[in-house]
Amino acid sequence: MPPPICYTKLISGTEMLVLDSMDDDQIIGRARRVFSEYLDPRFIDGLVETSSLPAEPTKASVHKIIRVGKLATFFNSLSPELNILRFSRAQIVQFCEKYRSKISNEGSGTFFLFKQGEGFSVARVADVVGYGKSLVLQVYELSYKGDWGGYENHQIVVQQLEPASP
After folding, report:
1. Long-range contacts made by residues 45-53, C-beta under 8 angstroms, separation at least 24?
2. Over the stretch 142-156, which tens digit does the pLDDT of each residue have?
3. SS3 labels along 92-107
4. Which among 64, 76, 109, 161 is least buried, having the fewest CB atoms inside 10 angstroms?
């Protein structure tokens, strides 16, 4: 049996990227400030998270996309259990505030998986100017059929569920 195809490469290494626990219903105003260039209204729709996420701080890891593929392929290549990779909307906003330097720039996307109703959606965050001041957030369905290239600086950020050290 051939080895699985690698679509991503871990680039955050052992760096501790820790997100604090937050409620989704507290972030609408913060989201509008963080994504001042554009905030997809679908990100705000159904803002209160209905499923439980860990209450303790959560570690995140950043992976560079190294091969052309679809959004579902990238996330499924890391784990077939998507619930362990996803973030709440509040955690996505917090990551973009706290770790703005980790967001791809000059139009490339940084992708975050989140729950939308019964399914999954992907938030694409991009720094359109390259200085960390003009973030946009667009929402795609996980089943989006378009390809994203590995030759660009696209990346994905996923959640690691083990408790983070303070």
Report:
1. 45/116, 46/116, 46/117, 47/89, 48/24, 49/23, 49/24, 49/88, 49/89, 49/90, 49/115, 50/115, 51/83, 51/115, 53/87, 53/88, 53/91
2. 999 999 976 788 999
3. HHHHHHHCHHHCCECC
4. 161
* Chain Cα centroid distance, residue 28: 17
Q: Is the pLDDT of residue 85 over 70?
A: yes
The count of other CB atoms within 10 Å of the CB of residue 122 is 23
Q: How many domains does the chain have?
A: 1
Query: What are the structure tokens assigned to 60, written together?
Result: 């995140």
Structural domain of 144: 8-163
- Is the pLDDT at 52 greater than 90? The verdict is no
Is pTM beyond 0.90? Reply is: no
